Amino acid sequence: MNRRHFLIASGVAIVAAVTGAFFANRRTALQSASQDAVKALFDREWFSPDQKPISTQDWKNKVLVVNFWASWCPPCVEEMPALDKIQGEYDPKKMLIVGIGIDSPSNIRQFIETTIISYPIVLGGLGGNDINKMLGNPSGALPFTVVINAKGNIAGTKLGKISEDELRKLIKEAI
Predict the structure, then answer these.
(1) What is the pLDDT of residues 23-50, one digit of tens each?
(2) For the chain, does the N or the C end have fewer beta carbons within 10 angstroms?
(3) Phi then psi for 92, rounded to 5 degrees?
(4) What is the pLDDT of residue 8?
(5) Where are the domains of the chain?
(6) What are the b/e assignments for 13-40, b being 16+ CB within 10 Å?
(7) Mean pLDDT across the chain
């Protein structure tokens, strides 16, 4: 009888744990982004770290990888070499990676002075984090990567540090 009770209790505990994990994941799961979110990304006025306006026209009609990051976010910094490497493998007229810094302008400027990054970095601030959320990341957690195809449709997203292989797969699906 004790063994039977133990097995039943174990089964109930496993079901409860799986159910709890399911609902916890559901609350924080990425929401699908609308075309309005992509439009908002392109319509927003963006600035380079030295406060110069950035034209989003250069972001259109190509595969666009948008990476939301911050200098204080270790996984964000860890994934940058992979992003930089992959950008170097593509013609920027066909595939462009853009880093949107959700950080203060001074922190971003200081960071890029000491870090080699070949893809464009723009200032995001709080408005950038609003776009981050609109693109399917309701928590605003970082890093968050969105891949948009040349037609302006979201091809994929990744919350958390993205690997080279994951990014290559998303880009390939978007091309």
Answers:
(1) 444 333 445 567 899 999 999 999 999 9
(2) N
(3) -60, -15
(4) 56
(5) 1-30, 32-174
(6) eeeeeeeeeeeeeeeeebeebeeebbeb
(7) 86
- pLDDT tens-place string over residues 113-140: 999 999 999 999 888 999 999 999 999 9
d(CA 56, CA 40): 11
Q: Which residues contact 150 (CB under 8 A, 6 or more apart)?
A: 61, 62, 63, 174
Lowest mean pLDDT of 2-11, 73-82, 144-153, name the range: 2-11
Query: Which of helix, strand or coil describes residue 119?
Result: coil
Which tokens in the block code for residue 109? 């400027």
d(CA 36, CA 40): 6
Superfamily classification of domain 32-174: Glutaredoxin (3.40.30.10)
CA distance 54 to 157: 23
Helix axis angle for 164-174 and 74-88, nearest 10°, is 50
